[in-house]
Amino acid sequence: MSTESVWPEGVGRIDLPEIDSTNAEAARRAPTLSQPTWIFTHKQTGAKGRRGRVWAQPPGSFAATLVMEPLGGPGEGALRSFMAANALFEALALFVDRTRLALKWPNDVLLDGGKVAGILLESAGTAERLDWLAVGIGVNLGLPPDDVRNAAFPPVGLAEQGGKTVLPEDFLPLLAANFATQEALLAAEGFAPIRAQWLAKAARLGEVITARTGSAEITGRFDTIDDSGCLVLTSPTGQKAIPAADVFF
């Protein structure tokens, strides 16, 4: 299987040796960009994950953000989390057996049950239209961070788990090409095939899991994700669609 990829047409690329955060840089540059653009760096000094959590980036790890102006409002923008997860899965599957990978709702990639990659979406705009959307992606290509304690899904590294070695700058074209394929699929056929691809790779589909929101904890069978990407659980009190939560197995 080839691990080479052609850079997608109509997509820009900005390489920076060091930056506070690729998502922060995306926000700063968004007003000046005329096309979807990947912002890539070898070192972040102030990266963060969901809900403001610290995101560590050991040397050799991948960090990049795709900044774009999607059609539609926040709901349309949120679909990019699933598109990014599909793209990440396919790029990583070039370097490790795909049966060892799984997608954890809403935005993580697991390798042998540990977190190998994460996705963070940030945006600005109104309820009707986004001015810009940033799809931030971090991948432990080598070793995982060694200062993460008591994580529900401990970080793992691709190389550490026996995957093939890949440099961050070589991983980016693979990811960008796969994401461009997802964008083309969304434009041609809508979210349905993207949703189907994601569900085919989903961790614990059909099993009992727990979703913790800011105000509740819901345990139930993971049935599906709906057309807007909400997690659908069947609990003792009925079926529930959950738009945002942390998931535990």
Description of the molecule:
The chain is α+β, with helices and mostly antiparallel strands. It folds into two domains: 12-200, BirA Bifunctional Protein, domain 2, CATH 3.30.930.10; 208-248, SH3 type barrels. It has helices at residues 22-29, 74-78, 80-92, 168-189, 192-200; strands at 12-16, 37-41, 62-68, 101-104, 108-111, 114-125, 130-139, 208-212, 217-225, 231-235, 238-242, 246-248. The strands form two sheets. The chain has a seven-stranded mixed sheet with strand order 1-2-3-7-6-5-4, with helices on both faces. The chain has a five-stranded antiparallel sheet with strand order 11-10-9-8-12, with no helix packed on it. A hairpin with a 2-residue loop joins strand 5 and strand 6. The longest helix is centred in the C-terminal third of the chain and has 22 residues, at 168-189.
